[in-house]
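User: Can you predict the 3D structure for this chain?
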Amino acid sequence: MISLPGSMVPDPLDAPVLRWGILGPGWIAHRFVESLKKYSTQNVVAVASRNQARADEFASIHSLERAFGDYEALLQDPTIDIVYVATPHTEHHACAMAAIAAGKHVLVEKPLAVDAPRAAEIGAAAARAGVFAGEAMWTKFLPKFDVLHQVLASGILGPIRTVMVDHGEFFTPDHRIYDPALAGGPLLDLGTYDASFVHSVLGAPASITAVGQPANDELNGQVSAILTDSDGNQAVMNTTILSNTPTTATICGRDGTLTVDGPFFMPGSFTVDLTDGTSLEYLEEKGVQVDGLHFAAVDAARNIGRGQLESSVHSISDAVATLAIIDTIREQLGIVDGPFAR
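Assistant: Here is the predicted structure, written as structure tokens:
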């Protein structure tokens, strides 16, 4: 009888303990620290903001030892092993490069940078410096995605022909995702999950065809794209800030279909339905960011403990390839100005 494998993700409590510093006390940084404190033994010791009051408030909420009113002060703190970069997208590259220059390991909130060339620069700089660098594409580190990729590797779905994935969420125009100066629009927020999912299943696309819909005169609001691999297999992805979508993902093979419940990028379940009538279900309690962000952090800690400079689950080349997909889509849609200029 066919059955689904179990997760091979190690216990988060078993990872070597690192001392973490947080750059940027925004919404995702709060969720990240909450996740580490709830599910791991990692030690978050400091936070930095360009506003001392914000740093102090964050440190008070999370009982951190130190709060800095500028980034450089945190980077020069000798007690910090690794820096989590949670600044706006447009600052990821500069902050990661500064952390590497200071000799710190670095885990950067997704996207690693606003484009593939800058992401590659981060990886190259970390390799030269002999420090770890990673993108916190936390979805790929979840137990359910470990099981999902074991299913794909088993071949029970047969050759994969079609992938469908969407991530849409309605935002009002006062949200920072509407700010072009902060690399707003759906692609570098919601769309990174879609692009990463497609890449993890089909690899780098041989061709991409994209269409877009503006949110306003300054910003793209919706993207749909067809990505085709070298064998002609296709993926369809949609990402939008103009409406709420099912946020599901489906992988279709000759011999079966794997359907990931929405939101596909968070902890949760999926089903496998084979053409012979077999139906299998991977059951996992639904969760949110707090229930999953720690997996990328403890993976970084394990790799650092082994002397590895990047993750085998989500490598720098994976992050660069995902951003290359987004770069191509952006180029087709004419999104080339503002924070993307070099």
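Residues 338-342 have pLDDT under 50 and may be disordered. The chain has nine helices and 14 strands.
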